[in-house]
């Protein structure tokens, strides 16, 4: 039994990729259930910071930008000073890297929980073992929020993102978007092998069926968005940009979201928007959202024995796992999803 009088705040050091950051909300929910009187904070990068505003059960985000490619000692000391001022009792260090554990140790957080990895002796003082025996990424992360040695539950709490309806309405108005049902497309991903290439043709078909199309993503997807707009015409909107909040609101307002295996897929699913995930080289079992998808679009594995390969470059079948998924099939599935969900037009 946990001490109900314990009110010391808890800090989570999550993975900072967008999809993994969204998955981290499961860890928040496990901690909320285990210690209902202990506030939970999340360390975040400026990129992921808008997500914290929509995560129930999180007291606040600690925004700090640590470079991925170097140690940045001065930045680590600055973060440690900030953490020390907040008097955390526990830090959960989800990444198994040495660098992720430095600031919590320098801050003197009494309990620092994490898996054995990268010789973090002295940085982590509540070791966990058996990471490689855990089947999924979410199992590895959420088990750190449980008592040491506790069995995995049959199901984890699913990530949640909650956007106030008024905020969605204001976003629509600011962007001049009508109440017509919209299909949100997420054509980007980390790794080109996970990108389905027929979004322009799908956009054209959606427009022909009277739907609006929104292309959502970061600045790296701008060129893809322009190609999709050119194929679909004026009813296709390029909503890519630097602010992740814009992507969250677009996914919240859409009638259906269609995405590669990417952070936007996890955002849409956590919002409760009917979400279609297109999978090629990656496994839906390992990487699909816990929330469940309205449809998982994947090539027949009996045709491609190499799938899923988890590789960033196709070396066997000329990327057939993605190329053989036809735009007409995706459009037909999306229409069925819209029909079953009641074709949400406005929120």
From TrEMBL:
A family per Pfam: Glyco_transf_9
CDD domains: GT9_LPS_heptosyltransferase (cd03789)
Superkingdom of the organism of origin: Bacteria
EC numbers for this chain: 2.4.99.24
Keywords associated with the record: Glycosyltransferase, Transferase
Keyword Lyase: no
InterPro entries: Glyco_trans_9, LPS_LOS_Heptosyltrfase, RfaF
Protein's UniProt name: lipopolysaccharide heptosyltransferase II
Native species: Bradyrhizobium iriomotense
Gene name for this UniProt entry: rfaF
